[in-house]
Design a protein that fits this description.
The protein is rod-shaped. It has a two-stranded parallel sheet. The protein has helices at about 10-35, 45-50, 55-65, 70-85, 95-100, 125-135; strands at about 50-55, 90, 115, 120-125. The chain has six helices and four strands; from the N terminus they run ααβααβαββα. The protein has a domain at about 40-135: Helicase, Ruva Protein, domain 3, CATH 1.10.8.140. The chain is mainly alpha-helical and about 140 residues long.
Length: about 140
């Protein structure tokens, strides 16, 4: 039996091994190219910020300013839940504020009440002052 007349099964095994070696070489080459460019991982705050709407970013900034360590712990846990897929919906500023208050963080949010007076928006306190002055 000569080398040209080898068993077809042996040829198939050789071809399969050669294909596997090529795939391993390609995977190794790809991993070498990505090592030079490390993928930047988002911080927990960036992950959570992507899910916020309706003044949510403002509430988050105020919480970090007033309770930095506690807020970081809460935001880290929220980000873990978001990345695992347990939280998929967006979070409003009101919902985030309610969450912080439910765990005992009384985040103070500056609010102003404005009323329309003769086509202009003025603060409610100014409106009351005008009424007292008119009396």
């Amino acid at each position: 039996m000569s080398a040209a007349e080898e068993d077809p099964d042996i040829e198939m095994i050789k071809a399969r091994k050669l294909k596997e070696l090529r795939e391993k070489a390609a995977a190794l080459e790809k991993s070498k190219s990505t090592v030079g460019q490390p993928k930047k991982k988002k911080s927990a705050r960036e992950v959570v910020s992507g899910y916020l709407y309706d003044r949510g970013d403002e509430v988050l900034d105020l919480a970090y300013a007033q309770y930095p360590a506690q807020t970081e712990a809460i935001v880290t846990r929220i980000a873990e839940l978001m990345l695992s897929g347990e939280i998929t919906s967006k979070i409003s500023g009101g919902e985030l504020l309610a969450l912080f208050r439910s765990v005992g963080l009384n985040v103070r949010v500056n609010t102003t009440i404005r009323v329309e007076d003769k086509g202009k928006l003025i603060s409610f306190s100014d409106k009351l002052k005008q009424q007292n002055d008119d009396d």
